[in-house]
Protein: Acyl-CoA dehydrogenase
Organism: Phenylobacterium parvum
Amino acid sequence: MNTITPAKAAFGFDPKDDLNDLRMSEKATPLYEHVKRFVHETVAPMSEKFHKLGEGRADRWGYAPGQLELLEEAKNQAKKEGLWNFFLPDAETGEGLSNLDYAYIAVELGKVPLASEVMNCSAPDTGNMEVLERVGTPEQKERWLKPLLNGEIRSAFAMTEPDRASSDAKNVGMSAVLENGEWVINGEKYYISGAGDPRCKIMITMVKTSPDAPPSRQQSQILVPIDTAGVEILGPMHVFGEDDAPHGHMHIRFTNVRVPESNMLLGEGRGFEISQLRLGPGRIHHCMRSIGQAERALDLMVRRGLSREAFGRKIAWLGGNVEIISRARIDIEAMRLMVLKAAKAMDILGNREARVWVHMVKAMVPERVCQIIDQAIQMHGATGVSQWTPLSRMYTGQRTLRIADGPDEVHHLVVGRNEIRQYEGGGEDQTSGVVWRN
Amino acid sequence: MNTITPAKAAFGFDPKDDLNDLRMSEKATPLYEHVKRFVHETVAPMSEKFHKLGEGRADRWGYAPGQLELLEEAKNQAKKEGLWNFFLPDAETGEGLSNLDYAYIAVELGKVPLASEVMNCSAPDTGNMEVLERVGTPEQKERWLKPLLNGEIRSAFAMTEPDRASSDAKNVGMSAVLENGEWVINGEKYYISGAGDPRCKIMITMVKTSPDAPPSRQQSQILVPIDTAGVEILGPMHVFGEDDAPHGHMHIRFTNVRVPESNMLLGEGRGFEISQLRLGPGRIHHCMRSIGQAERALDLMVRRGLSREAFGRKIAWLGGNVEIISRARIDIEAMRLMVLKAAKAMDILGNREARVWVHMVKAMVPERVCQIIDQAIQMHGATGVSQWTPLSRMYTGQRTLRIADGPDEVHHLVVGRNEIRQYEGGGEDQTSGVVWRN
Amino acid sequence: MNTITPAKAAFGFDPKDDLNDLRMSEKATPLYEHVKRFVHETVAPMSEKFHKLGEGRADRWGYAPGQLELLEEAKNQAKKEGLWNFFLPDAETGEGLSNLDYAYIAVELGKVPLASEVMNCSAPDTGNMEVLERVGTPEQKERWLKPLLNGEIRSAFAMTEPDRASSDAKNVGMSAVLENGEWVINGEKYYISGAGDPRCKIMITMVKTSPDAPPSRQQSQILVPIDTAGVEILGPMHVFGEDDAPHGHMHIRFTNVRVPESNMLLGEGRGFEISQLRLGPGRIHHCMRSIGQAERALDLMVRRGLSREAFGRKIAWLGGNVEIISRARIDIEAMRLMVLKAAKAMDILGNREARVWVHMVKAMVPERVCQIIDQAIQMHGATGVSQWTPLSRMYTGQRTLRIADGPDEVHHLVVGRNEIRQYEGGGEDQTSGVVWRN
Amino acid sequence: MNTITPAKAAFGFDPKDDLNDLRMSEKATPLYEHVKRFVHETVAPMSEKFHKLGEGRADRWGYAPGQLELLEEAKNQAKKEGLWNFFLPDAETGEGLSNLDYAYIAVELGKVPLASEVMNCSAPDTGNMEVLERVGTPEQKERWLKPLLNGEIRSAFAMTEPDRASSDAKNVGMSAVLENGEWVINGEKYYISGAGDPRCKIMITMVKTSPDAPPSRQQSQILVPIDTAGVEILGPMHVFGEDDAPHGHMHIRFTNVRVPESNMLLGEGRGFEISQLRLGPGRIHHCMRSIGQAERALDLMVRRGLSREAFGRKIAWLGGNVEIISRARIDIEAMRLMVLKAAKAMDILGNREARVWVHMVKAMVPERVCQIIDQAIQMHGATGVSQWTPLSRMYTGQRTLRIADGPDEVHHLVVGRNEIRQYEGGGEDQTSGVVWRN
């Protein structure tokens, strides 16, 4: 007879469990509807003008005249309508959107790339604001959180290093040494997203402060203003040839960069602890948006398949194409349910307990979405790799997600380890250093 | 800008939609708990005795002395405790278990193979009883439904034919011709599951009555008592070498088999229509049980991986094994959510509208479960293919499911077609003849 | 008992068959060694200078001062050393390199991108020269073949159209109508590789001249000088954001383009016939180079895997990475043998009989090479998608090959059809319009 | 510029290298033709009679009257015609069939299962005879090799143990202790193929004699007559429910089994060394036969696809089936070339240097052949899993090969390690204990 193993129990397979209620709450409905309308009626037309203005601009790493004004106007409108900073729980009551509710809203945000910024809900600012809100000193909050919450400046998160395998979060090479009340920082970071934007003023920077401490207590996170002497932006990193100006994924060298001792976040050796805090609604953004990308790719695939003929039939009906379309639909629905369940798990079990769900969806979604976009490319023939469809851009974006915030392999290690652990008292642990940035 | 395509709407991606509430109902809780307890406390020990009695039996195609008595006793107990026929909605009020609730209960039924029969909820009787309940004449109900509901006899469903591609339900070769108030039936059927059981008395048989009618009106379903003259059981079909005696998947020849005109179900040419009725809770059984099999395979895989060492490490931690385990867990959770959503869709949208969900899970689940079992086999080395684990039996069972009730390819055709159809007024339709048996 | 089926025979499985001798010929050895040395000692250093000169150039769609001089110098050197046009069989004797010998040499050519051009063996000139050599009139040869053979001009092949599924070669939309002794051409072509180069003077253009003829007699190939009135280069098509200037994959509109009647190649309605002639050594280039790309990706993958550590081990040894490396090696060797066998088959059986082998390798190689490069990217983490490795460029190049010269699906259709055909007298033929360009 | 890496060199990519000449030798032609004729004219009809005689036999673990006589007659005929023991190189001159020539002959042997035995070329006898030939003492040869060479007895090779991961050949649990001039052996072995045959008289048994020696010097191989006291055959192991009587894959317990000290092969602690000797033509058998199985599966797949219709078309032409057929053909050809190349590598480089080629084909072939057979099953619908085609037997046979002689994973580890090693001075070695049995 088959017995119920611990594994099953661990995945909350209790029929009546609220984990299985994946509906958006009644409470969030008005906000959801409002965001949807605002994206459609305000952000979308603004966005079109914004991009038109930018097309001929002289400096790809800056903004064209009128662009920022347009953006500010929309941001002010969002503030006025109360669509501002809703990613962040109330500082005093702790109340805010549930992860599940936010997941549904993220789909709407994902429909126009500028929407998140207009409502001040865009990465990596969201994660940075959360961290400052939770562990910042009053001075740090006044100096950096306030302008961030007001949308006056932007920020970056400097974690990945060019000469280390970042899949292991213990692999931090950049050193920070305390000298005369100042942290002196040396090293290199790369793929610092958003650091190319002229409005980016502050970086939360992961450094190694305590090389002799136990592995998980060696790292710290420090606030480094981007204009500090010794911070040298070497150039933008490309993603399949694209530099993503003016946002940019910058390569930065730190040479004897000095910041006041008080720029330390939370305390020396507590960098890991802070990373755990970065587990908020932001995480769900990416996966819900990836699913949005997959929907779009499937939509383009079918439309193309019906608009071209070969060998006397529409190509959607040729060979294995119907099955490719079927598998895309099935997997999109399965991924959507998994992301919603992960969001719900965070709401009910808390970030710590729900962690394996988050790793599951991060391991599952971008890999499969890449494949669906790739199949859409194939259905388009040469047009699929061209500038005439968004597919190649979508592909490279999703391809990068299979590496960013931990490569697929690391997420599978965590999920597999979690499964195995239920059968042992302990065992080999290869992956204890896994953290994510967002 | 990405717009909401019809496809998305069609998949009910409305955040507040009850389709996304996958919890078992409060109402079903007592039954669920009762079944769970009954399986554990009554069926499981009975089952062990039953199989022991059968081991040395002279006639593999019959039962050993004492076996049927044991079974009857358990069935009486189930009746007494009210755990009987609960698969079937109330004949008058139409009330019954929702598909979602039944899906959760099916998991418990699946834990001991005899449990379904003990509670009179085993295929193909369930589907046959549903059909008789809905379309049977008073005489047909009296003669066949009553003893089936009482668990006095068993039944079979004769659809698949050896010389036709059964993936296309229009491919019925067996003819039935009306002569002097009797249907005269000629042809062959195979893989008639359950027809080997000495208690099997009646077959619902798919025949071609109207070869000149439009394709979907050519077929009929007729009641054929298994002891009718001309019904010749040629032998059992094997499944990877296994004959599954005494249940059996029989190969049957019909030579001038004559049954009264009144044995026709619903009416001449309405065989397809009846097939649509066979869309009940039974459908969800298989997929929920498949997931149970995957859970069991994963459980065995991990246990084995921790009990053997090679090259100085437990094999669960070697090479790609952790990732294999991770992918199994992720896909099991995704499949479970999909099956539950399909059940819920049937409850809310009705069988017709929910049809594509059912095809999605049938296309998705057995294929992936086969692969998980196969990986568990590989983790066991030679023991994995041996009689020392249930894995090879589990594999061949699941492998067969990829063919039974329509091969994977047909389900993908339906799902892909549904996706494509949303973009056209109509278009080529290759798969209109798809029906399932259960 | 298993009998020898026609299929086996058809694949030449005769143990002593010379098809199985995949060694380069003795005869070709001196040329092979010479090319190898020339690429290493002459082309490689020239190439470095060439690219340095081009870096700052004002016009991306032209050449920087000194670039073409450098190239001409190397070409003259190649001519002087007898390393010129060796892709082409002797016009009179028909003697030339075998496909197998050329395949081995192509590997060496592939090691430095400029090498082919320096020895006048680069696509699409090679195919165009072959066609002119075989079917050109004396006037056509004098006017276009001579300067091509001398490396004085370059050429293009205009086949693909933006609004047709080019997988079906019958799908030619561009019309050519004879008026007063001139062909008047109207339509659009895109992905015309090489048409961006200022030295490109002539295009062989696929047109539809006879819409009422049987499908395979409707098309013709016509010589169109690129500076003819009405030829409008609309712009470069991108490949994953890359425009490949100044070579370019151009989008060209033809509006009432008039060329003399004598520009027709071979004869009206014989466009297909000419396409069959384009089956020469050029075809093998791509696949041998793809394998070279896979070798390089594997090399980079292993080096990276040994240069980074995570969780206390070099990442090459982590998780499933060793198996990924193993599978890459195995598949590279298998692909190499298949390409060599295809080349040998062309040598022994002739292009027509060997056709299915060519389709087999075209269907097999680019798909798998894409995957190997993708795995190398993953092993590199963020660096893998950056400008710091050639991997993203390699990927997009190979990805495009899965579409160019017929998408994978079409090659599989031809191979599968060939297999099925051996069992039938005829049957449905979906793919008779398949031709390749090169 | 791409440079030639050591890896490429290591794979002998020298165009003129004889490694690339995969033709059977002229010398072997007469034998090849003779075997082919003999299998067709003599073995095939005998085989049919043999199986007919066996059908009703009382003892499944013995032979029916007349069966062995029939076999002996055919064996005598083979001897008379000189078709006997040709797997074995001449004891004095060392001359014999090359591996490549033998590979081609193995295809013919594989066409009728009894053919190998009739010509005394069947496993595991071939490997055992080779070992005895090379390392046996005169007494051992007289006692065991002679009757084996004469086909008077049969033998087994006892290596795998039920409670160890046999993927690591150092995992030998069975102990042999020297007491008073006798080895006393205790432990269990399973999957001892051929030990069920009443003619099996001797087992070469892998034991651990020196637990304190370095890992690769702890094992020894000892001759154990199957009728020695203490050898207890517990029963046959099943393979997907099949026991393969009377050959059998036996589970055997050794309890204080005593054999003379002189039964040791080669010397104490030299068990590994002997395993290296077992690298002979036998290895190639399996892979060539697997390819034969794939050919047969593809043949059945296409025939079925042309004999059934659904949705108005033959199913071979439906959906992705043409592509499935194409991929099967492509992979069969690629596998065939790889196996031939591995055979040639053994001939030219010697077993030691060619080792990685052998691991490559063992990792590559059975996995893919399983998949092709599985696809043939799917094309057959329910008939595919039934007793009406050989497919389910073929599947389980190939599935087992993915485990036997080392699971796929171990072969990939060896191949991947070999690739990585070319870049390092040494590095982590997980797999040094890999040996094969055959």
